[in-house]
Task: structure prediction
Amino acid sequence: MPELDLSLPATSAYVAKALEEIGITPSLVGGSGLTFTLGNAATSGKTVLLRADMDGLPIKEETGLPYASCNGNMHACGHDMHTAMLLGAAELLKAHENKLSGTVKFLFQPGEETMHGAIEAIREGVLEDPHVDAALMVHVMTGMPLPEGTIVASSTEGIISASSDWFDICIKGKGMHGAIAGSGANPLETVTRIYLSLQEISKTMLAQGETVVISVGVIQGGTANNVIPETAVLKGSVRTFSDSARLKAEVMIKECAQQTAQQCGTTAEVTYIRGCPSAITDHDLNQQLINTIIDCYGESSFLDINKLMPGGRLPGSEDFSFFTREVPCTLAFLAAGCTSDGYIYPIHNPRTAFSDEVLHRGAAIYAGFALNWLKSNQL
Ligand SMILES: [Zn+2]
Ligand SMILES: [Zn+2]
Result:
């Protein structure tokens, strides 16, 4: 029953029940999020946060699997896997609570896909009381030529995923008969010119050494062959790695829309929404994570993200990035479906599938990392 955005009542109730069965009572945070701590009352130590997201996507599932979603939404990003893995980690750490040299805070987070969840949980104080000193998230991967169970992490600190912002450009022109379209103020012409100019912004910024990906997903306007409409709309998304490129892209897109509209005798209204920043990892936490992966599953199970992606950076984004801007963080990616085993569809595809054979690995990495990090960072 994949649910969307911040409101996951059935998912949240399911997770709360599973936790209560092992003697844990969670509290609500950030919409349908759940949080609680485990720790050895005899030792006062630092606090490490383990975060899993739980939300699905508004995609109609076409996998044909016996357990496929029937409610019109889909866990096409594997967040149900993350939820299961963090539940596994909770069970493991609850059973070994007396071995913890500090506190483990858990966060089952809604609203990742919409970028509302992390920021909402932070606003509601999930990083305080007790104050969080470090954080880890795990994400599954599928539809890639990576052996099942491979765990990817970064040996280098810094930016690991892109920022994600959106823009809506609404052009107002002058509706008229198609026969006199040449007389100006055609919003469709403005939108077309803006579309082409946006590609130039990417090229200009690349020439200045900054990567920006601007994609247009919506162009709307007009109703009939011989009628020039009053308005037209263009919507897109923007991804960058550095904060300076993020700001520069925003300024350039707004300028491009205004100037192009003016040249065409139309006006532009730009709504620019900041989604999430790029995610940043911490050197010491990355090392601790890699040691945990190798301890648990051996050298052959670990893959450095620098060998997978140029510069060790993912083009996608993750709202966990909000946590990475507050406390030292690290991220692991778990291969849960190899192309050669028939897992040929990427995440967010209606036919994407994941192998649940890897769930124990995710649970162990979450639990092992928390245990090891607290041990090596005792007060
Ligand atoms: Zn996703
Ligand atoms: Zn995801």
Summary: The two ends are 43 Å apart (CA to CA). The longest strand covers residues 212-221.
